[in-house]
Specification:
Blueprint: H1 4-11, H2 22-31, H3 37-46, E1 49-51, E2 55-57, H4 68-80, H5 82-85, E3 99-105, E4 109-114, E5 124-129, E6 135-138, H6 142-150, E7 169-171
Antiparallel strand pairs: 1-2, 1-7, 2-3, 3-4, 4-5, 5-6
Helix pairs in contact: 1-6
């Protein structure tokens, strides 16, 4: 499993370093699901950020423009609409077997976490390409997927053309 230190080596020093679990606890109680530990650790370290000017991560404790809870609610509703639901392999949501929207990209992709059907099953990453009806499931954790992205590997999003001098991040305004 990818570690935060491996991500920090490529992405740079984390400066948000959130430690209060209250926003996560509230959001997880509302949704009825606990986010995977690696996702929480990364988002707690970096906060609401843009990675390579392409990938957007949001934290649950940040103001309304960049709040993970608002994002999840809006995107879940959007992906449950009849004309959008057909573009996913399963329903958007936080129940077992559903797809939880957690990030987006300026290049038209939506990143989902596949909620495990069984408590012992692993979380997976699904990337849906908005400019086509296609999606790709990655049999890896969010941390592993993000690390692959930062290394320039093909995980639907490409970082090399966005960050030729290496990965970078900036806080969302």
């Amino acid at each position: 499993m990818a570690t935060l230190s491996e991500i920090q080596t490529l992405l740079g020093e984390a400066r948000f370093n959130w430690s209060d679990p209250a926003p996560w606890t509230e959001l997880e109680q509302e949704l009825g699901v606990a986010f995977p530990a690696d996702f929480r650790e990364i988002v707690d370290a970096y906060g609401s950020i843009s990675i390579n000017g392409q990938l957007y991560l949001k934290h649950p404790a940040v103001h309304l423009l960049h709040d993970l809870g608002s994002f999840v609610r809006q995107e879940t509703e959007f992906w449950r609409e009849e004309d959008m639901a057909e573009f996913l392999p399963s329903r958007a949501g936080a129940d077992p077997g559903e797809l939880l929207p957690v990030a987006t990209a300026t290049t038209g992709e939506m990143i989902f976490l596949g909620v495990p059907g069984e408590p012992s099953s692993p979380w997976r990453v699904l990337v849906q390409e908005m400019d086509s009806p296609s999606w790709t499931l990655y049999e890896m954790t969010f941390g592993e997927w993000l690390l692959a992205y930062l290394k320039g590997r093909d995980v639907t999003l490409r970082s090399r053309n966005r960050a030729p001098d290496g990965p970078f991040h900036s806080p969302l305004p």
